Amino acid sequence: MRLWRRTDDEPARFRELVEHTPVALYVAADGTAGGFHYVSPALVALLGYEAEAWEDDPELFARILHPEDRERVLGQIAFAKTNGRPYHLEYRLVGTRGTVWVEDTAVPGGDGWHGFLVDVSRRKTTERRYRALVEQLPLITYIDSAERADGAPVYLSPEIERVLGYTPQEWTSTPNFFLDHVHPDDREAVVAAREEARRSGEPLVREFRFIAKDGRVVWLHDTQTVVRDDQGRPWYSQGFALDVTSSKNWEAERERLLEQAQLQNERLRELDEMKDEFIALVSHELRTPLTSIRGYVELIEDDPLLPGPERRAFLQVIDRNADRLQRLVEDLLLAAQAEANSLRLRFEELDLAKLVVDCVEASAPHAALRNITVACTVEAAPIVSGDPGRLAQVVDNLLSNALKFTPEDGGIEVRVSQDATTALLEVADSGPGIPEDEQRGLFERFFRSERAQREAVAGVGLGLSIAKSLVEAHGGRITVQSTEGEGTTFAVHLPLLAAVERLSGAA
Amino acid sequence: MSAWSKRPLVLLAEDEPDIRRLVATLLERWGYEVAAAASGDEALALAAARPPALAILDVSIPGPNGIEVTRRLRSDDDVPVILLTAHAGDRSAAEAVLAGASGLLTKPFRAQALRKAIWSVLPPSPEAAA
């Protein structure tokens, strides 16, 4: 059906149409200067300026453009006109009854630019309200459009600047800004997550690190959804990102603390096991001499007619086992003191050779019991500063070890010598030797060699650790040299008193 | 056969010389004959040479330990065994029971306790009580 026919009064009918349509139409002059050939009554009504004002005053348009939009709009119109292209703009005009948001659409025509203005003030107000709401949120909100090939967002809320230090402009004007500022270690995962979300169409939720403008690493929790058009095709995506750095750091801290606590637990458990083992060993080592003491006392008590020599022998057993008990108690005390770094030593000038000879003599009954010969070679009489009781204990511990591990009828060699600065004591047994892998742990507290455990050799694993602590408290050191099948030599190096005095005199 | 040879033979295994001598002295005073060993191997060799009426073994002797020796004595010759231990605790008791020991004495022990333990598996004969 044709409502319109070509007639003679066609121009008049078009005129009427234009004048009565409630659309603000205009015909603008070519060129960038502005000026209008025609404005419709609707446009006059919209802004309050008479048609004459538009047609006579080429500056009117520029003047009533909102100051914040002026530069942008004039520039865009000039650009479109210069290139002969249509334009579609949104801006504010200050009419006689107030500011109006308009949508301005124009196409080049024969006698200028034909366009129309639509009042979008209501939409703009709503939009502004939502925008204000969005921009008030402590969230980085953004809109990505698939149309932008560089992947830059079309909208970014100002929160981005507070969180990351970059302005939305920096962000949108630099190609690949987003990916280039993701933490290098997370980049691959971020790309993979984006591909996966594109493929599945599921909302994208991810956490990753981002490098802020000041170089800080910021953890972002990012949620992105794809908005589809009426046909269900992906249109654009929108999302929000949250700064979760503090909770991430807390998480890391919590993990660190947890790990630490687990290590501590492990260590405590080990210590607990060691303690149990130690208590069992000590209990065994206490019970053994106690058994002899109580047993031999009973043997003597129960037989009033016991011959003198036998009675004396039994009393010696009691005495020897009481000694053993006392040594164990002293060892425990010393080990505790060494552990607490509270070894109390009474230093005096002493002759190491004499001290060693005394110790060897004291061990003679023990050695004789198992028919072991102890040869003592004294090559020098080194004078050292030391606690005689404690140094004797070192020598006793080394001798008692040598006796424990030397087979019956075997031999032990003890040698005292010195060089310019150091006194040297060596105790060499003819025992089975110590495997190399065990030599390192030898001086640790409660260390018991495989052999000692297997062959139920008496001891709680304190002797050598005590010897080491004592020697070191004297400024010396203790070393071991052992060949399996041949024997073991322990060497104690102590600084000569004269050497120490020379040094402190020189200082 | 003289009365002397009828004294019951007790196999004793203990690596601590003082305690070995203590228990041997007690056993001899009580009228037993004693075969003394310092290790598990020695004990098994003695038992093989002359089966004892009773064995008294320390749990932690070197070589096959007291528990292991008990197992073998029980399975081979059904010899009653009394174990001695310086390790106080339920574990050694359980092990002793499982190995087939008739008694377990924790060190230090009274002479009377040892005597009672022996009598419970080897009732006193007129010779031994003498």
Summarize the structure in words.
The complex is a heterodimer of chains A (507) and B (130). Chain A has 507 residues and is an alpha+beta fold. Helix content of chain A is 50%, strand content 24%. Chain A contains 19 helices and 17 strands. A five-stranded antiparallel beta sheet of chain A has the order 2-1-5-4-3, with helices on both faces. In chain A, strands 7-6-10-9-8 form a five-stranded antiparallel beta sheet, sandwiched between helices. The radius of gyration of chain A is 50 Å and the shape is rod-shaped. Chain B has a five-stranded parallel beta sheet with strand order 2-1-3-4-5, with helices on both faces. In chain B, α2 packs parallel to α3. In chain B, 46% of the residues lie in helices and 18% in strands. The model of chain B has no long low-confidence stretch (mean pLDDT 87). Chain B is α/β, with parallel strands linked by helices. The longest helix of chain B is centred in the first third of the chain and has 13 residues, at 17-29. Chain B is globular and about 35 Å long. Chain A binds chain B through residues 280, 283-284, 287-288, 290-296, 298-299, 302-303, 317, 320-321, 369, 454-456, 458, and chain B through 15-19, 21-23, 25-26, 29, 60-62, 65, 86-89, 106-111.
